[in-house]
Amino acid sequence: MESYGVIEVDLFSEEVDDSDHPEALRFRAVLEDVAVEHGCFLIYFEVEKGTVEFAFDSDELMAKILRILEDGGLRKA
Questions:
Q1: 73: DSSP letter
Q2: Distance CA 22, CA 67 (A)
Q3: pLDDT given for residue 72 in this prediction
Q4: pLDDT greater than 60 at residue 1
Q5: SS3 readout for 11-67
Q6: What is the CA angle 37-38-41, rounded to 5?
Q7: What's the CA gap between 65 and 2, in Å, rounded?
Q8: How far apart are CA 7 and CA 15, in angstroms?
Q9: Exposed, middle or buried: residue 42 (CB in 10 Å: 0-12, 13-18, 19+)?
Q10: Where are the domains of the chain?
Q11: Which of 53, 64, 1, 59 is nearest to 27 (CA)?
Q12: pTM of the model as a whole
């Protein structure tokens, strides 16, 4: 069985406390669209007290997202 890393981001207020909350569902849909665009799958998604944890089955996409987060988010060129 292959193991994947998980990205954890404090994204929502603490009231968003599970994966079925409407805000979490909207974010999950965005992540699923990103997965399709990159030819991979969203393999993990959890939300607890505003913190989102997610993972894709693409090391390349995971690395790209980590670089974006480390750089402080998306910036216009």
A1: S
A2: 27
A3: 78
A4: no
A5: CCCCCCCCCCCHHHHHHHHHHHHHHHHCCCCEEEEEEECCEEEEEECCHHHHHHHHH
A6: 100
A7: 20
A8: 20
A9: buried
A10: 7-70
A11: 53
A12: 0.85
